[in-house]
Design brief:
By secondary structure, the chain is of the alpha+beta class. The chain is built from 13 helices and 16 strands. The strands form 5 sheets. The protein has an 8-stranded antiparallel beta sheet, with helices on both faces. Strands 4-9 form a two-stranded antiparallel sheet. A two-stranded antiparallel ribbon has the order 5-6. A hairpin with a 5-residue loop joins β7 and β8.
Length: 390
């Protein structure tokens, strides 16, 4: 419906249950102008779907005793040895007070460190995040980030943030190699995720989906982003830089659903997977708004995984999924969900660059076409559960 209306270039959906792929839908085009159709092997920028993969790499180090959730990050990242906290989260950067305790590894993995993103905070700190030197390598970027005050005390609130990017630098320092190599060795290679990485081969580049955006007249524009890299980046964005395919990400998700192993290869301990999939937020955490939405109704948060805690409360807002259902989306419209009770995995992949301000304004104005685009993924989820009799 959204593709036919010209609001979406193309989409790929996958339904897996009880060890079998039941359905793959290849809809529309991965490049409209070139008339290249969407295919099952299309490569997508998965944005924040990168985060759980990075967390899994961190938990593999926990399994080996190289890292603990309660470790202060300053053990490896001395840049954070003396952090300060803003007096007012939206106030001047020079009005601060000392942090009450150190930032812990667990704080990074649950976004309770006091760090933020430019879009998740306001005021001068938001503008300071926009100026961070991401292109100058991990050490320069980290030093600049650590000089900024936190928006709240470590552990007190949840603020979506650069925390998982910091985890990437931390793992790189522990292992003494670039983060993309750490991820390859610990997660991607053991799972056979040959199409997943921060860069792609020259041959695979032809399978990359073009990123689109909607202009003010709801017409698709293809000038949103350039093609994927074909060489390792100077700074692998551990919080959002991966490319992947539906089948590759299915392998990662199935590993989590199967408590850390897949096809006889154990990637994580069952305890580490349980920690990732268990709600770690307090009632006080959930009293605060998250990304401007009632995000915690019937849901909690593990180690960078959303977790369903009350299916009856969660379903009206977020769609069906039994207790313990876990997921995490990406900013470009990519989404997945694993439901342990139903032994079901759903994957939904599109490439649509959002403009948060204009999307919000369109919703307030009752822009039905934009709403039609936003309803595509929930319709896929609800119709799939209905078709399976769940």
């Amino acid at each position: 419906e959204a593709c036919d209306a010209g609001l979406l270039a193309g989409a790929l959906t996958l339904v897996w249950r009880h060890g079998e792929v039941l359905q793959v839908n290849e809809i529309g085009y991965r490049d409209v102008e070139a008339r290249v159709p969407m295919r099952r092997d299309t490569l997508f920028r998965i944005a924040s779907m990168t985060k759980p993969v990075t967390v899994a790499a961190a938990m593999s180090l926990v399994d080996e005793g190289k890292l603990a959730l309660r470790d202060p990050i300053s053990r490896w990242l001395p840049e954070f040895a003396d952090v300060r906290v803003l007096d007012d989260p939206r106030g001047p950067l020079d009005r601060t007070h000392p942090a009450e305790r150190a930032i812990l590894v667990e704080d990074l993995l649950t976004h309770t460190s006091g760090l933020g993103y430019a879009f998740s905070v306001g005021g001068p700190i938001s503008r300071a995040y926009l100026r961070l030197p991401f292109g100058q390598g991990p050490d320069v970027w980290l030093a600049a980030l650590a000089q900024l005050p936190l928006v709240h005390q470590p552990g007190k609130r949840m603020t979506y943030s650069h925390a998982i990017d910091v985890v990437g630098v931390l793992l790189s320092r522990i292992e003494g190699k670039p983060f993309h190599e750490v991820l390859d060795e610990r997660i991607l290679h053991p799972l056979g995720m040959t199409d997943t990485g921060f860069f792609v081969s020259a041959e695979a580049r032809r399978r990359a989906a073009t990123m689109y955006r909607l202009d003010e007249d709801d017409r698709l524009q293809h000038d949103a982003m350039g093609p994927p890299r074909i060489a390792p980046p100077s700074f692998a964005n551990a919080g959002g830089g991966l490319w992947s395919t539906a089948d590759d990400y299915l392998r990662f998700t199935e590993m989590l659903l199967r408590n850390g192993s897949l096809d006889g290869a154990r990637v994580l301990s069952a305890d580490s997977v349980r920690l990732m999939r268990t709600d770690r937020l307090t009632d006080d955490h959930k009293r605060h708004s998250f990304l401007g939405a009632p995000f915690w109704i019937g849901r909690g948060f593990g180690l960078n995984l959303s977790v369903v805690t009350d299916p009856a409360k969660a379903a009206p807002l977020f769609g069906p999924g039994g207790a313990g259902t876990f997921s995490w989306p990406g900013a470009y419209g990519t989404w997945w969900q694993a439901d342990p009770a139903a032994d079901l995995i759903l994957i939904y992949l599109v490439q649509n660059l959002p403009t948060l301000s204009s999307d919000a304004a369109a919703a307030v104005a009752g822009n039905t076409s934009r709403a039609r685009l936003q309803s595509a993924q929930p319709k896929f989820v609800r119709s799939t559960y209905r078709a399976l009799g769940l």
